[in-house]
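During the reporting period, we have paired protein sequences with backbone structure tokens. One record among many follows, to show the layout:
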Amino acid sequence: MFVTQRRLLAGLVGVLTTLATVSGVLQAEDKKAQHSAIKPAEHKGKGPEARHQRFLERSKKGDVEVLFLGDSITQGWEGSGKEAWKKNFEPLKAANFGIGGDRTQHVLWRITEGKELEGITPKAAMLMIGTNNMGSNSAEEIADGVKAIVAELRRQKPNMKILVLGIFPRSPKANDKVRDKIKEVNKSIAKLDDGKNVKYLDIGEKFLEPDGSLSKNIMPDYLHLSKQGYQIWTDAVTPTLQDMLKK
């Protein structure tokens, strides 16, 4: 009888151990599924909130053929990149929906709960986001965030072509750790290219010196672009955007 009880007890312990293991795995998966990069979050603050309202007003007017979506690097088309913008993108009926400091979760909020896409039906959109997530998320999580944005854009605007840009290089030296993290993210989001509706383009090397370093002439603070940097960006993406607008 004691042998039977021991066997029953051993079996019960085994079942409980299995259940605990399964529970742990499920909790880990749930935690992963809820990481910050894919949870829509409003970017609080006077500046971001004001720009968001400005975008809503722009959307009400309609007539947007090309949508630029991103963070301060995209917002910079209104600063250092304004000449290139006026000459090359304004004629394409482009709208700049870039907000300084935005992370993937902020862009997700803007296009979902923030309803920035209501009223416009762009033929093409250019997305470059994720550099502001570098300090708070893993490369995998950042890639998840970019993928979530693309999925939402496809859901809302199924006929819109999407140009996904690889995250631009940052920091002065080629061997800075953040460079490897950026490459890891870009390797993952490159898989979004489906050869039809989504195009991936990595133009990062065009900003670099032969030794892989960044020049202050291109990125004065090793993150944001100069006038010259925006011209490089313009030259690199214009043919692809024009091709998207023809289809």
Notes: The chain has one domain: 35-246.
